[in-house]
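Quick start: read one record
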Amino acid sequence: MSLIVIILVDIFILINVFSGLREISNWPLSPSAAQPCYAPWQAYCQDTASDREIRFLEQQITLYSPPQTFVERLQESSKGRLTSATLKQR
């Protein structure tokens, strides 16, 4: 009976470990992927010109171009992530 309990506890622990590893694999690899707006915001904070608000808004409006197809959206969402597809490409 105690052997069965030990085996069940081990299975429970292994399931939790592997589900945690799967969650970690979805984390972005670079800080810019985790916070894509940080670089423009940092540049805005360091800018001391009087028209920095207008230039910041113009840059943000012109930089954003939404992906058109499903494949482009999928490729955009997988940027900065380590997936099996990127491993096969190398």
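Residues 2-25 form the longest helix (24 residues).
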